[in-house]
Design goal:
The protein is built from 16 helices and 16 strands. Helices cover 37% and strands 13% of the residues. It has a domain of 153 residues: D-Maltodextrin-Binding Protein, domain 2. The N terminus is likely disordered. The strands form 4 sheets. Strands 5, 6, 9, 10, 11, 13 and 16 form a 7-stranded mixed beta sheet that branches. The chain has a 5-stranded mixed beta sheet with strand order 1-3-2-4-12, with helices on one face. The protein has a two-stranded antiparallel sheet with strand order 7-8. It is globular and about 70 Å long. The chain is of the alpha/beta class and 453 residues long. Helix 1 links the parallel strand 2 and strand 3.
């Protein structure tokens, strides 16, 4: 199976139907006599009507695998019937997409949203801090949650002490490189990373893995948003010197072509490390073929910790104003377990549920063969030098377990914060202000944004 580089795909839009929803829903979502032709769900698509079972609504703008999961869940004939409310029309452009997402967020903010919320294109921290999402620890205790799923991954997904989202699987973002060059231990600050590169007569170009035209500063902040924004207290912290280092690093790296590691670039010392997304054992095996036995997971530059960030695939949450929270939770558990997936490739990344993750890691060590006795690849890549990998050794799988255990943060790309950083970074890189002044303006603007929430 090929590991996709893109994070999200588009869930096929469902056919428009004129009927109103019945059964469960957040207050105002149904049964209140409101004319939906002019209501807050105007333009959303509804899946087919269900049976007499209690109906639960699932709202989505840009979902993955939702229809397949809902169809399988409904076919089991349980007490609940899930209805998809798709806010994105079948044909759309950027403006239509943004309008659809805004309408979805408005419904949630005004109490007219769906019972289950597809969080793929929404800011979980913002919605959680506003009380829009239910704390999932209210359905399953934190102790039990961390027995069912990897405890540290669940910890990464929390906003403060609350948990607002679960998904089918996750990937890991980190920086890897040659341990002999990067030094021992996991985790380093931005200053330590830059000093390491300087000691090897290198600058920002020594770190591969950024896409062309990507905002380096906003990307690095997104990996460690918790270092800079405390959603519980509503406080921003961009004024420290380490953030200025990120701005300086980004300015040095900005405008360069997209860079990917190669055996030559590593052997020559052109690249000392790379920013990587690891979606499975196969991805880790691929990196071993580049860096060899000395490969080290150094981590993303951050204020403290290991610097291994979690990206949650297919995240769902529950509307805090749902009138059918037990039905929403029933489907959410079913969805996370992934038993609805018709093929293994339908769910990307490391599985979130512990038993499924253990099975996945065990399968990575099983070599299968075709009818002619030739080994079948376990994963394939858009990579000329390492296009295929085969069954992993027990040592490699154990290293992957250790990598998962290092995860200590969540990728959080808050749109408003990212936009502020991008705007001030442009002024800084254009020579209009110093790094210190840019950091000060970002601090003031983000704090104002938080104060308005």
């Amino acid at each position: 199976m090929k590991e996709e580089r893109g994070i999200l795909g588009i869930c096929t839009a469902v056919i428009l139907c004129a009927g109103l929803l019945s059964g469960c829903g957040a207050p105002g979502a149904e049964g209140d006599g409101e004319d939906r032709s002019l209501g807050s769900l105007e333009g959303a698509s509804f899946s087919e009507q269900g049976s007499e079972r209690t109906r639960v609504t699932l709202g989505s703008v840009w979902g993955v695998n939702l229809e397949q999961a809902v169809e399988a869940y409904n076919a089991e004939g349980g007490p609940y019937f899930v209805e998809i409310v798709n806010y994105l029309p079948e044909e759309f452009d950027n403006l239509v997409y943004e309008a659809s997402r805004d309408r979805f967020k408005m419904d949630l903010a005004t109490g007219k949203g769906t019972d289950i919320v597809d969080l793929s294109e929404l800011d979980v921290d913002v919605l959680g801090s506003r009380g829009v999402l239910a704390d999932l620890y209210g359905f399953l205790s934190e102790e039990e949650m961390k027995r069912r799923y990897p405890a540290n991954i669940i910890g990464c997904l929390q906003t403060g002490e609350e948990l607002y989202e679960l998904g089918t699987s996750f990937s890991l973002y980190t920086v890897v490189g040659n341990g002999a060059v990067l030094g021992p231990g996991n985790g380093w600050t931005m200053e330590e990373m830059m000093n390491c590169f300087a000691q090897n007569d290198k600058g920002a170009e020594a770190l591969a893995g950024f896409y062309k035209d990507s905002s380096v500063a906003a990307t690095l902040v997104g990996f460690s948003m918790g270092d800079y924004v405390d959603w519980q207290t509503g406080k921003a912290d961009f004024s420290a010197g380490d953030f200025q280092k990120i701005l300086e690093f980004g300015a040095e790296r900005e405008g360069q072509e997209a860079t990917r590691i190669s055996r030559d670039s590593i052997a020559s010392g052109t690249h000392l490390a790379s920013l990587e997304t690891i979606r499975g054992v196969g991805g880790y095996q691929r990196l071993l073929q580049y860096y060899g036995a000395d490969m080290a997971v150094k981590g993303l530059p951050c204020r403290e910790g290991n610097g291994v960030a979690v990206w949650l695939y297919n995240p769902l949450g529950i509307n805090s104003r749902s009138e059918c929270p037990e039905g929403a939770w029933d489907f959410l558990q079913y969805y996370v377990e992934g038993c609805w997936a018709q093929e293994e490739g339908n769910i990307s990344g490391f599985r979130l549920e512990n038993s499924a993750l253990e099975e996945q890691l065990a399968q990575a060590m099983v070599q299968e063969y075709n009818g002619e006795g030739e080994p079948l690849p376990k994963a394939s890549f858009d990579d000329l030098e390492v296009p295929l990998v085969y069954a992993a050794s027990g040592e490699t799988v154990e290293a992957v377990r250790e990598l998962i255990a290092l995860a200590d943060r969540r990728c959080a790309a808050d749109e408003a914060v990212r936009r502020i950083i991008d705007e001030e970074v442009s002024a800084y890189q254009g020579g209009g202000q110093t790094a210190a002044r840019a950091a000060e303006k970002i601090q003031n603007r983000v704090q104002l944004y938080l104060d308005e929430q």
